[in-house]
């Protein structure tokens, strides 16, 4: 049995040449807290590059964050159902991270056929308002009839969005 005296005899002083400590290892794998619209889908939390979720979303033609937001805002329930293999907790993390995306400057519009109405979307593809008979109203302020028309026209609108070359502020 070794005593404290025997242990101290085995401890030797060490001297080394100067060396650099690497910090930030794995930095490229960290997720940005506010992804950009053009980031690959695997930059979202809970999605790993070439992982099962990444491949699942790619099969659905969701390759970038803006693709995810387009599908999510078009029909969140359908997207969730298509991704049912992802746990509710992880799904909520993915959605929250995508929605924290840095918004772009683009604005989108869709003219509702035969209704003298136009729907407006922000760069994250969220409906922000509509113009009826030449008068713009934010989505929150639309009446029930107007919201109903917007909701009914939503699917067709997402399939036919076009980039508007001017800012939404100029429409108001």
Could you explain the architecture of this structure?
The chain has a five-stranded antiparallel β-sheet with strand order 4-3-2-1-5, covered by helices on one side. It is an alpha+beta fold and about 170 residues long. The chain is built from six helices and five strands. Helix 3 (about 65-75) packs across helix 4 (about 75-80). About 35% of the residues lie in helices and about 15% in strands. The model has no long low-confidence stretch (mean pLDDT about 85). It has helices at about 5-10, 50-60, 65-75, 75-80, 90-100, 145-160; strands spanning about 105-110, 115-120, 125-130, 135-140, 160-165. Strand 3 and strand 4 form a beta hairpin.
Assembly state: single chain
Strand content: 5-15%
Order of helices and strands: HHHHHEEEEHE
Helix content: 25-40%
In spatial order, strands of the major sheet run 4-3-2-1-5
Using the alpha-carbon principal axes, give the shape. elongated
Summarize the structure.
The chain is an alpha+beta fold and 172 residues long.
List keywords for this structure.
single chain; alpha+beta; elongated; 172 residues; 35% helix; 6 helices; five-stranded antiparallel β-sheet
How would you summarize the topology of this molecule?
Elements: H1 4-10, H2 52-59, H3 65-74, H4 76-82, H5 88-99, E1 107-112, E2 117-121, E3 127-132, E4 135-138, H6 144-159, E5 162-164
Antiparallel strand pairs: 1-2, 1-5, 2-3, 3-4
